[in-house]
Amino acid sequence: MSQTASTIYASPTDVATYGEYTIKQDPADPRPLYRFTGRITADGSSGYRAEPGRYHLYSGWFCPWAQRVTLQRALNGLEDVISVSYVDNSRDARGWAFRETYGPDPVNGFTLLRDAYEVTEPGFDGHVSVPTLWDRETGKVVSNDFITLGIDLATQFGKWSNGADLYPGHLRAEIAELDSWIGPAVNRGAHGAARNETARAALLDAFATLDARLADSSYLAGGQLTEADVRLWVSLVRYRGHTGDLAVLPPLSDYPHLWSYARALYQLPAFRATTDFATFSDPTAVLAGWDSEP
Ligand SMILES: N[C@@H](CCC(=O)N[C@@H](CS)C(=O)NCC(=O)O)C(=O)O
User: Fold this and answer.
1) 128 lines ligand 1 (CB under 6 A)
2) Which residues pair with 244 in a beta bridge?
3) Residues 155-203: pLDDT tens digits?
4) First vs last Cα of the chain: how many Å apart?
5) Domain spans of the chain?
6) According to the CATH classification, is domain 5-155 in 3.90.1570.10?
7) How far is CA 253 from the centre of its chain?
8) Ligand 1 centre from 207 Cα, in Å?
9) Whose CA is nearest to atom 6 of ligand 1?
10) Does 113 sit in the ligand 1 pocket, CB within 6 Å?
11) Among 19, 144, 219, 278, which one has the highest count of C-beta atoms within 10 angstroms of its own C-beta?
12) How far does CA 62 lie from the centroid of its chain?
């Protein structure tokens, strides 16, 4: 029997009826709001063995944290190993939902991403976020922890991957060191930088440091493409387009080495395939600039 649109799609986003999406932490409830931290391992010792066809990634085109994982998947050539689908770009209190924009949930037929969490933990009241990794075998959410998801995709699927090593052992300490300042200043800081002077100063200071670092290197660590570049790039591509007021935020082209680095990465198929500028909130974030020769 064929399903009708109303059974496979959520009704349109309707904040007037449902309200805004919010998370309220109950002070008496000590459980983390991001509760799903399962790890995938090549040998299966974690309970989640790396296997083709077993996992599904719920993603969102707009989301930098989700793009880290879709980028890892593409850079490792795992498109046929881990399936992916995309939630709609807007939400109300029901959270992320499947709508006509990107099609239905191909695995479970859920209309709301929340349903995946509810099946996994009845009564779940924490964050319903992308990225979310689903396990077809146990019928549960494995993880919505973007850091470990990215690392597990990069390191545990070697048997099926194209051999790219984005998280090499000898560069992990350096990648962590980069994360310790790029994380707060850029990945988490960019969002408030238009409104908050301290955040803006930290962001622009990080851009200046990155610009100097990239003056004679095409990549952030070890002279090769790594997880550090993935983490930075997903925020760079959304800078101004997704995070702010163009009047107070200087264009990336003010940082010529950083800008050239960002555009060079955009020339790579995995970066292009996982980016959709149309899903960023500001239409003036013009693709043309990104598409010009670095
Ligand atoms: N904030 C998350 C990262 C993922 C994230 O924030 N995703 C956003 C979309 S860009 C989301 O789904 N937010 C809903 C929520 O966190 O409840 C974390 O720290 O683990």
Assistant:
1) yes
2) none
3) 999 999 999 999 999 999 999 999 999 999 999 999 889 889 999 999 9
4) 52
5) 5-155, 169-291
6) no
7) 24
8) 24
9) 129
10) no
11) 144
12) 8
Q: Would you tell me how many other CB atoms lie within 10 Å of the CB of residue 102?
A: 17
**Which residue reads 């090499």 in tokens?**
168
Ligand 1 mutation pick, 127, 242, 276, max ligand atoms within 8 A of CB? 127
Please give the Cα distance from 191 to 203 (Å, whole number). 10
Say if residue 269 is preceded by a cis peptide, omega within 30 of 0. Answer: no
- 65 Cβ closer than 6 Å to some ligand 1 atom: yes
Q: Into which CATH architecture does domain 169-291 fall?
A: Up-down Bundle (1.20)
Whether residue 1 is predicted with pLDDT greater than 50 in this model: the reply is no
What CA–CA distance (Å, rounded) separates 215 from 275?
25
What radius of gyration, in Å, describes the C-alpha atoms of the chain?
19
Nearest alpha-carbon partner for 249 in 213, 212, 195: 195
Q: What CA–CA distance (Å, rounded) separates 210 from 255?
A: 9
- CA–centroid distance, residue 169 to ligand 1 (Å): 28
Give φ, ψ of 264 to 5 degrees. -60, -40
8 A C-beta contact, residue 5 and residue 98: no
Q: Which atom of ligand 1 is nearest to the CA of 130?
A: 12
Using one digit for the tens of pLDDT, what is the confidence trace for 75-133?
999 999 999 999 999 999 999 999 999 999 999 999 999 999 999 999 998 999 999 99
Tokens representing 146 are 């973007």
Specify burial of residue 194 (Cβ count, 10 A radius: 0-12, 13-18, 19+): middle
In this structure, are residues 135 and 22 in contact, taking their beta carbons and an 8 Å threshold?
A: no
φ and ψ of 233, to 5 deg: -65, -40
- Same CATH topology for 5-155 and 169-291: the answer is no
pTM: 0.95
